[in-house]
Automatic annotation (TrEMBL):
Signal peptide: none annotated. It comes from Acuticoccus sediminis. It holds the Pfam family MarR. The lineage of its organism: Bacteria, Pseudomonadati, Pseudomonadota, Alphaproteobacteria, Hyphomicrobiales. It comes from the Bacteria. This is MarR family transcriptional regulator. One of its GO terms (molecular function) is DNA-binding transcription factor activity. Residues 14-143 form the HTH marR-type domain. GO terms for biological process: response to stress. InterPro entries: HTH_MarR-typ, MarR/SlyA-like, WH-like_DNA-bd_sf, WH_DNA-bd_sf.
Length: 156
């Protein structure tokens, strides 16, 4: 009988399981946001742009755990779609500051419930009383290992 992930040692490895859960979440996110062209990473970046108000790509990269190169690419795609605006920082012309446009705000409002459903569906197989503990465990692992990532989060 051929081996499957469920019958091999990788099924017990946290890295494999976390990656697989991420793949599943991305699929759920796309299904819930059907008709809207936005990825989980783009939504996270837009959320950070909205929250950080006129932040540069370094601040935003730390806010969502992306390296600066990938952050620049995501910001460029969002700007080309008219969802964010980028402007040169008045105090440092080397920096570009990002802000959400009215079109970006409208998209965020349109998908807000779908995004909430996607996150809920990702953990719905867990009993309700275990979900907070699951999130707490993930946060503990991220905090403990944050410095090891290519793009560490700035955590409060």
């Amino acid at each position: 009988m051929p081996a499957t992930a469920a019958t091999t040692a990788i099924a017990e490895r946290p890295g494999f399981l976390i990656r697989r859960l991420h793949q599943i979440h991305v699929a759920i996110f796309a299904e819930e946001c059907h008709g809207e062209v936005i990825t989980p990473v783009q939504y996270s970046v837009m959320s950070a742009v909205a929250e950080c108000k006129d932040a540069d790509q370094t601040v935003l990269a730390h806010a969502v755990g992306l390296d600066r190169t990938n952050m620049a690419a995501v910001l460029d795609r969002l700007a080309k779609r008219g969802l964010i605006r980028r402007r040169v920082a008045p105090r440092d012309r080397r920096m570009k500051l990002a802000s959400v446009t009215p079109a970006g705000e409208a998209l965020m409002k349109r998908v807000a419930e779908a995004v909430d459903r996607a996150h809920a569906r990702t953990v719905e197989a867990l009993p309700e009383d275990e979900r907070a503990a699951f999130i707490a465990a993930l946060k503990t692992l991220v905090r403990a290992n944050n410095a090891l990532g290519r793009a560490p989060l700035k955590m409060g």
